[in-house]
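Please predict the structure of the following assembly.
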Amino acid sequence: MPVLLRKLPFFDRPSEVRVRGQAIRVKPDQIVVWISVAAKGIQQLPPQSARLPAILDTGCNHNLLIRRDQLLSWTGMDIGTLPPLRRVRVHGREAISLAANFWLQPNRPGCRDEFAATAPFLFETLHDGIVVTADDQDAFPRLPLLGLRALRRAKLDLHIDGRRCRVTIRRRRWFGMFG
Amino acid sequence: MSTVPETQPHRPQSDEDRAAALRALLEADPPPMITQSIAAFRRDLPELLQKHRGWCVAYHGDQRLGLAKRETPLYQQCLARGLSRDEFVVCGIDPTALDPDDEIEATLDV
């Protein structure tokens, strides 16, 4: 099975990632992956596409949750550039799902914040899109969240090695996105 | 450690701009054709599940445009027809699709 993330480390102590020169705290035991957001209908991610960190959150039951201000400042995309699909609620608060896909950036084996030369993996979000929350005082989520729905729909295998603090994500040979 | 390549500088927003943006987000209604497309998909979903479970289907309002195994080629076909992105939706034929009670949860305090 092709490997998307190989021995991606997570840490039992705080760390940080840098996005556009900004240092962002990562808490202990958080799994950080790097993604790129793009419009739908693109077969190949443009090479200069912005990369942003996302926490792999198995408690998230959607594809991707991201704050509007982070979408704008990290990718240059504003909600006006992506068609809204429907209004949704996140923990009872209003949000909007937008017609966008995102790509998972393969890591250099053993490294979290360095990338392999292999092509990014496309998550086709279909009618669910990505969920954008308002950048209000609660500032939720603190970092974008990559949820289990994306992994399930893409039929990816997730392996978390708690002893070595490593994560591997593999994909099966593709015969169809669903079914 | 990788950083995001610099593109356009982002100008910090004033409180007024932030409030306006927040209102825009919460008041954004999906375009009518997208709402209609999603409604048509919901109506057809039981039938679609019998024959095409796991596939993708595109709708332009009530009109079904096509079926495919993946979203992207189907999306490109719709754009090639001259449709704009707010005029069609590509949906996944899945039993849980568009559950009206779909409540999104995530880990709090991340």
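Chain B has a mean pLDDT of 84. Chain B touches chain A through 53 residues (CB under 8 Å).
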